[in-house]
Amino acid sequence: MRNRYLDLLRAVAVVRVVVYHLTGWSVLTIAFPAMAVMFALAGSMMAASLDRSGPIAVERRLHRLLPSVWVLSAVAVPAMLIGGMAWDWQVLFWFFPLVDPPAAGDWTTALSATWYLRDLLWFVLLSPLLLPLFRRFPLPVVATPYAALALFAATGVTPHGIVRDLALYGGAWLLGFAHHDGLLRPRRLLWVAGALAVAAAGWIVTHPGPRGYDLNDIPLGNALWSAAFILVLLRFAPAVRPHRAVTVLNSRALTVYLWHVPIIVAVTYAGEDAGWPVRGALGIGWRLAAVVALLAVVVLLAGWVEDLAAGRRPTLVPRTVGPARKDGPHEDHPHPGTPHVLRPRVRQHTCRVPDLGREHDLPAGRRADQLRGVRG
Predict the structure, then answer these.
(1) How remote is the C-alpha of 209 from its chain's centroid?
(2) C-alpha triplet 363, 120, 94: angle, nearest 5°
(3) Which residue ranges make up each domain of the chain?
(4) What is the pLDDT averaged over residues 273-284?
(5) What is the pLDDT of residues 349-370, one digit of tens each?
(6) Is 20 helix (H, G, I), strand (E, B) or coil?
């Protein structure tokens, strides 16, 4: 039985990301820190998969993530090569994006949101080491990424993008572990969440970024606020009735995430070329309608790849969500929040895309000021 509450959170996070990239509204990063929530949910599911299957869960999780990336790269890479991008062996990183693969032209902006898959791959690969370490030393391990961010902020050090992101979202991933192990239930954690929220607010107000209070420009404030948000969200587990829209969004989350920025960029450029407004209520309104319509088309054309990757029967529009086969590659845990010691564990023997987008920093260039609505 799936946890419909977690499904709802992931669906809301995906919608929030799309709306933010379309509008550039900074308030959305505070109202719902979607990326941190997505990493927390993924961390909880990864812990469940490792408990169920052991290290082979890494292979299964990669099996679920990568095919959707390959579909996007099968379109983007030939288009970039035809458009004049020089062949480089690092193009092969589109097959397994542990670092940002190369991109050129307008595709540099369109593919900027793929940083999320890069970071997700790193967290998945590190999880077999992180989970036992977390269970042995939970508080020091959870505190480590936040301490690293504080050190970066205090010293002015600019770490490599991957290191920065592991620190920025590592706390959320580890809180996902804690959720899976049932450690977020104590009521006193709400006081901790309150303290973190106050500390985050103090840092954000005194350290605004180039876009004001957009959390994507304030890493430490982002991490602290997100931690408080996650502690509150995952502390509760209300009963949620299944809904078709939530089911579809969860079954097609990767497709929506990977394709929404290319579609936003294409729609925005087309509108500019036609002389249509792309900002303000009218510009946002027509672009939102166009993006939703085109995303629906892409989901129908390519979304079934997620079914194959998850071991489900391919369908155009999913009706139900759940693991298709026992111990298959899609292993959403049935009862998250249950202490891991109560779960049976089965061991089996057997120009490059800049470091963009945390939902931010789309590159300057032609009509860059016109693209505020698609900044990641």
Answers:
(1) 22
(2) 60
(3) 4-350+353-374
(4) 94
(5) 334 433 434 554 433 333 434 4
(6) helix
